[in-house]
# Entry
Amino acid sequence: MSTVHVNAESFADTVKNGIVILDWWASWCGPCVAFAPIFEEAAEEHPDVVFGKINTDEELELSGAFAVQSIPTLMIFRDGILLFNQPGMVGAEDINELLGRVRKLDMEDVRRQIAEAKQAKETKE
# Structure
């Protein structure tokens, strides 16, 4: 599967189901350009995962909402939940390992942990 362009309008629909890995990038960014073929190759190797690219120059508001401060930044969502967020280039083997970990997660347990953390925070306030 090839990568898809993600913008503010398509973001919510893109990340709401399944595993989605996002590359936040810009055309003037040398490391972003160097990372692009790695990301494209990973997209071909993992057809069950959505690989999306977000141009930070075009999506300033979306980049701000996710506090993207350096690029490239890689984020992984599963069923709408952000599970991984890291600036910098990531190697192909690292992508494979990350996706393996994300596939193994019990998402009901993740949702439970999020709910418990939210409840604990509200209790403290």
Observations:
- The first strand starts at residue 4 and ends at 5.
- The radius of gyration is 15 Å.
- The chain has one domain: 4-124.
